[in-house]
Amino acid sequence: MTQRLVMHVGAAKTGSTSLQRVLSRDAGSSDLFVYRCWQSDGSFTDARGAQHGLTGYASSPLRLIELGDWDDSLIATVAQRIAQLTRSSTLVLSSEGWAGDAAEMSPKASANLKRILATSGVESEAVLYVRPQAPWLESFYLQFGIWEGFDIEWYAHAVRLAGDGFWAKRVAALQELGFTRVTVRHVDDVVADFMGYVLALPASDPRLIGRTAANPRVDLDFLLMALADPRLRPGPHSPHVEFLLERVAGEWELPHRDVPPLMGEDLVEVTENAYADDNRALMSLLSASDAERFEQRASAFRQEQEGRATMTRADLMAMDIDPAYREQLVLRSLDEVLRQRFGDGIPGVPPLLADGAQRATPTKKRSLVQRLTGRIDRG
Is 343 helix (H, G, I), strand (E, B) or coil? Predict the structure, then answer.
């Protein structure tokens, strides 16, 4: 059997976390693959022991650019460990930041990765998923830029200056790192494609049944509340909030409003022009069906923005928050605090999470309820 290493290298906002959730869930139960997290010290840890709380996923914290600091002994140890892990099944690693790392690696870091791959003696594949840049930038902005106080027009310009979104250039950089093969894909369902096309799991595999294919678009009312009160989403990379909302959305039955389109017609045109040359090169790297789908998605997004002006952050924050959403979010959140700490919550409020912790302490609960209700009464 050919020993094989598959490195999913991103890109960010292309379904990476959804894929990592599925890989993490049954990290060591398949005969076809093992999923591990590559650590900065060179070790490979079991993803099931590293999942990030309610989000239920784990990825590799190692930045490839760190390899420039590794010595000969560590490089040899890592190569040997890869060879061991791939003896009976494919080793899968994932980090949506590795595609960006490829373009930033020092000559020494690049040389060290090449040595690891060559010394391990395994077949190695880097897998990159891509999206049309305009919708990708809007999604990227909602994940990062809006929390840093930037308008989307400025953020889109900064992302381009940083070299992000130039997918063909990313592939070229990856091809210089010693992989046996670099695969670039544009698909509707990254999880199904990676499991089926890359890992060759059958469609009946339980990892592909009863799952969420992609993260939902953030709710407008939650976005407005979190922008007004940063405690609801404390940083630009706090996706646990969105995953919590996704997990309980069916039980909450909250009012839902989509975030309106942020990129206007002019900004879409500027974005598409900026990436035009790179996209022409990208089309030769994609399969015919992927290239056609890429063009269709870009065209559909362009048509949706026709006649629209680009929204500023201030425009968005000036919108009113649905009072029913605010009330239910606060009520259910307080109820969950009580259930997690004391075993039962506010009378008449359905459980937020069916599998919440059960630790009932009546005296402590009564004290906390009094403090919480006192704060609510005071506004």
Answer: coil
